[in-house]
Design goal:
Layout (H helix, E strand, L loop, with lengths): L3 H15 L4 E6 L15 H11 L4 E7 L2 E6 L4 E5 L4 E6 L1 E4 L2 E4 L13 E7 L4 E6 L5 E5 L23 H8 L7 H5 L10 H11 L12 H20 L41 E6 L2 E6 L8
Antiparallel strand pairs: 1-8, 2-3, 3-4, 4-10, 5-9, 6-7, 8-9, 11-12
Length: 302
């Protein structure tokens, strides 16, 4: 699933390429009776409202909250896109072939990972902003002063790259889940926004903390180490364009580079890359998610 760096990279791309453009039409093939009554575009009635709220509106800004992309239109309307497991937003020239959309320009948009188009925004410059989503898990909705579909945003924890996010902030947030395992708590979006499986593994590796350590057993030194690692690793991934080990691509359809810098995530059975460490990277299911960690230098606190 795209995490904070991937969503940030996407958000910056959308803002750069679409600010000032107008949405001239919207198409989707999301749907099905299972989605009836839901407040997202997979419900056909809601999609009708979505289209009415967005077509003819100008894109004035794009932002991010946690793993959510927020596209602000004039008139106070905001489109919310959560890319979920395999979604990524793309921008370029597309054409409709039958009931499908295909890239109509050479280059990275032709990557097979970019070909599962289920949502298309036609724009006033004759180009398209599209959502490729092979597993069709992504969520797209909208909200304004009359429509509070974004109530979930209010439940998110603080943003870890904000200047006022300190080790004290981290400690306060972690202590809301004192009996939780640190890996699981770091991934809890109500505790801290934007961190998932990849970056929790990398942060804990760098912090020398075993992912099954119990939060209440951590100390101030641990909080400081986690905070430093969190800011360093997330910032590095943003500079590298995010992580494309799986499906993620930026809006030009290109791969990021952070997958080439993993020290723990999906490095199972490889020697620990930490200097002078004799450990190997192990894999274990924790809280229903795969966790990767060093057998030696990541210390268990229970």
């Amino acid at each position: 699933m795209p995490e904070l760096p991937e969503v940030h990279t996407t958000t910056v791309g959308i803002k750069l390429m679409t600010k000032g453009l107008t949405v001239t039409d919207v198409w989707t093939d999301y749907g099905g009776a299972i989605h009836n009554g839901k407040l997202n575009i997979k419900d056909k009635n809601f999609f009708t409202k979505f289209k009415q709220a967005t077509v003819g509106k100008k894109i004035i800004n794009t932002g991010r909250r946690g793993k959510n992309i927020l596209i602000n239109l004039d008139g106070g309307v905001t489109i919310l896109i959560h890319m979920k497991m395999t979604g990524h937003v793309l921008y370029g020239k597309y054409k409709k072939v039958g009931n499908s959309w295909v890239a109509n320009q050479p280059g990275a948009l032709q990557d097979p990972f970019n070909g599962f188009i289920h949502l298309v925004f036609n724009l006033s410059n004759q180009k398209q902003l599209v959502l490729s989503d092979v597993r069709k898990f992504a969520k797209v909705t909208f909200f304004d002063e009359h429509n509070k579909n974004a109530i979930e945003l209010e439940l998110l924890g603080p943003e870890p790259l904000e200047k006022d996010f300190t080790w004290q902030t981290l400690g306060d947030r972690l202590e809301t889940k004192p009996r939780g395992k640190i890996k699981t708590v770091l991934m809890d979006q109500s505790v801290i926004a934007g961190i998932g499986n990849i970056y929790s593994d990398e942060i804990l590796f760098e912090s020398e903390i075993h992912p099954e350590s119990v939060v209440k057993k951590l100390d101030i030194k641990d909080y400081k180490n986690i905070t430093k690692a969190m800011k360093t690793i997330l910032t590095k991934s943003i500079k590298l364009g995010g992580d494309s080990l799986s499906d993620y691509r930026n809006i030009a359809g290109e791969r990021g580079g952070f997958q080439n810098h993993h020290k723990a995530y999906r490095q199972t059975n490889l020697p620990c890359p930490k200097k002078n460490c004799s450990g190997i990277i192990l894999r274990k299911i924790i809280g229903g998610r795969s966790s990767h960690y060093c057998s030696v230098h990541q210390k268990l606190k229970v």
